[in-house]
Specification:
The protein is an alpha+beta fold. It has five helices and eight strands. The chain is globular, with a radius of gyration of 19 Å. This is Pleckstrin and Sec7 domain containing.
């Protein structure tokens, strides 16, 4: 699953340039969230990738921003394969597990159950982590590793909660069309695990007249204003 950053309007049949291929962002196991703490520009959202890089995208309107967030998260929820089993190690140092970039082979019903199981596991592990820290005063490197682990568990809890909630809505809607999924979310009128209620907006499928556009202000790779295209 790849999000291509393009400076010019998408043109069907036109090959991607070397720069556009270089600036592509893999969105497997990614999570898009509204940048509520970012005030320099309006309609900005974060995209955190599987390797924990963070990109900032600016959309032209609130509706477009909400659509980008929803569609990126729905696609990631649909196609991100289950994580590899945790590696066995004698080291106490915390390290984030590797996440597979290949698309899942599970059905969407199985995918939802996997996300829900991981959500439950992340909640349990986060409680255990916090309980183990009670009454302890770690310092230096140990304290930093504990902070990193808690941040990781919090993020994974949010990610799997978002994935499961969105896929449940998609399955209930009974459609593969993202417009239909957005309409179902809007009709529900709720925020599923931090996902804003979306509004009707253009499809992620390439379309010259209705392609949603966002400007990337994030970390490497850098890119200017561009449209996003998904490659499963």
């Amino acid at each position: 699953m790849i999000l291509y950053l393009q400076k010019e309007e998408y043109q069907p049949g036109k090959a991607l340039s070397e720069a556009e291929l270089k600036n592509a962002i893999s969105i497997h196991h990614a999570l898009a969230t509204r940048a509520n703490d970012y005030s320099k520009r309006p309609h900005v959202f974060y995209l955190r990738t599987a390797d924990w890089r963070v990109f900032l995208f600016q959309a032209p309107s609130l509706e477009q921003m909400q659509s980008w967030i929803t569609r990126i998260n729905v696609v990631a929820a649909m196609f991100s394969a289950p994580p590899f089993p945790a590696a066995v190690s004698s080291q106490k140092k915390f390290s984030r597990p590797l996440l597979p970039s290949a698309a899942t082979r599970l059905s969407q019903e199985e995918q939802v159950r996997t996300h829900e199981a991981k959500l439950k596991a992340m909640k349990s592990e986060l409680r255990e982590h916090r309980a183990a820290l009670l009454g302890k005063k770690a310092r230096g490197k140990e304290a930093e590793e504990q902070r990193q682990k808690e941040a990781y568990l919090e993020f994974e809890k949010s990610r799997y909660g978002t994935y499961a909630a969105l896929l449940r809505v998609k399955l209930k809607a009974g459609s593969e069309e993202l417009d239909t999924v957005e309409a179902a979310l809007a009709q529900a009128g709720s925020r599923e695990d931090g996902v804003p209620s979306p509004h009707s907006s253009p499809s992620l499928q390439p379309n010259i007249s209705s392609q949603p556009r966002a400007q990337c202000h994030g970390s490497e790779p850098q890119a200017g204003a561009g449209s996003g295209r998904r490659k499963p």
